[in-house]
Amino acid sequence: MSVTVLQNFIDGEFVNSVNTGQYIDSHNPATGKVHVKIPDSTKADVNNAVEAAQAAFKTWSKLPRTRRSNFLYRIADILESRLKEFAEAEVRDQGKTITFATNVDINRSVYNFRYFAGHVLHAEEKVGQLDGVAMSYVQRWPVGVAGLISPWNLPLYLLTWKIAPCIASGNTCVCKPSEFTSLTAYMLCSVFKEAGLPNGVVNMVFGSGQSAGEALVTHPNVPLISFTGGTVTGKHIMASSVKHMKKLSLELGGKNANIIFDDCNFEQAVETSIRSSFWNQGEICLCGSRIFVQETIYQKFLDAFIPKARDLVVGDPNDSKTFVGALNNLKHMEKVLMYIDLARQEGGVIECGGSRKILQGELSEGYFVEPTVITGLPPTSRVAQEEIFGPVVTVHPFTDEQQAIDYANDSPYGLSCSVWSENDRRARRVSESIQVGTVWVNCWLIRDLRMPFGGTKASGLGREGADYSMDFFTELKTICLANF
């Protein structure tokens, strides 16, 4: 397959990087072969993009919300008409299965634009009246140029999750996708052009985090940064942003608990735990990588869960029968395998998996890892505490409700948790005691975009979704009128 060479998208045009001829190789995770070259953009490229976004902001911010909404609806329609093309590109670029790319990544990207196209039309603000004295009301206005930095695990999905509310609320933006997965972001720029989005409203600068990302985060004319990625990088962005007092939205790592009580719907808990453990190769920040099972059904759970994990099809991401595709990049695969070795050193038992999966033919150099289930480790072990972000789970027994809560909360992260119990009072007690941003009871990964999404502790700062995203991308002003 030929190698695709990307260009930056600045002021409505595809342009070469100022750093002409310098590219970063991006590999197809399923084959290990270079399939995309992305510009190794510099501070000068970011400066050009910010200038274009600043110029566009002057008119875009004053455009009536109905017209901004129409642009978002048009983008959604065009993206949906190219769903198959985008899904296939996401598979080549990220390593995920075609089923997941189609049903989750691209479908939800379309919905992100449609949702915020509608939400911006129906946003309401507070009005208060002091009888005979004054009336006060809230005015909301866009902030300016936003820096949007997206990760490699759900590339288009999480990029559009930022772009849609950003431009719906009247801001313009400079985006920096992950250097590992830039292809669908590049393709999205052609959607913007076809939709007639005014030049400079969305700009795309490709490159490394150390160069392009750092330039964007520290740019004095970018007053807000929305970042999804690792906790270490998130802390660096916080430190780098202090000088300019930037607004920050940081959606960071997770090490999520999956708590299974003995009064659960057992079959449903097992089936959903397979998905929450190994969907998208475990490369979802919301995956339930720490499974806590009440000791009365612990062995029963293992007897049901391990064979299902062992039987999952690891293979060609383009095959609809494949459940586990390739990990995104070589360095990440090596990290995942290192944690499996660490589990052995810590005294864990590898119940299934535990190795790189070597396939045949053109997939022989792909970054595949077997679904791995580990028992015998204390909840305080490194493997049970640190984010692995791969098809690896640890399973631990617990005695009672309080111990399950203690285990779940004993983590530097606080993104999400699942609770399985048919006792409604218990499920509510436990849910309200877990220190995370989202708790799913008897389900997993059901998303209502009206609800706040984000984490506590090392899992992030701020919330996204509906009004919460709009609050981040706007400023609020109280106007008080006397003699009302």
TrEMBL record:
Please indicate if the UniProt record lists Acyltransferase as a keyword.
no
On the tree of life, the source organism's domain of life is Eukaryota
**Active-site residues, as the UniProt record annotates them:** 251
| Any Pfam family | Aldedh
Under the heading InterPro entries, the entry gives: Ald_DH/histidinol_DH, Ald_DH_C, Ald_DH_CS_CYS, Ald_DH_CS_GLU, Ald_DH_N, Aldehyde_DH_dom
Residues in the signal sequence: none
Keyword set, alphabetical order: NAD, Oxidoreductase
Q: Where is the Aldehyde dehydrogenase domain?
A: 22-479
One example GO MF annotation: oxidoreductase activity, acting on the aldehyde or oxo group of donors, NAD or NADP as acceptor
Q: Which family does it belong to?
A: Belongs to the aldehyde dehydrogenase family.
Q: What name does this protein carry?
A: 1614_t:CDS:1
The organism of origin for this protein: Ambispora gerdemannii
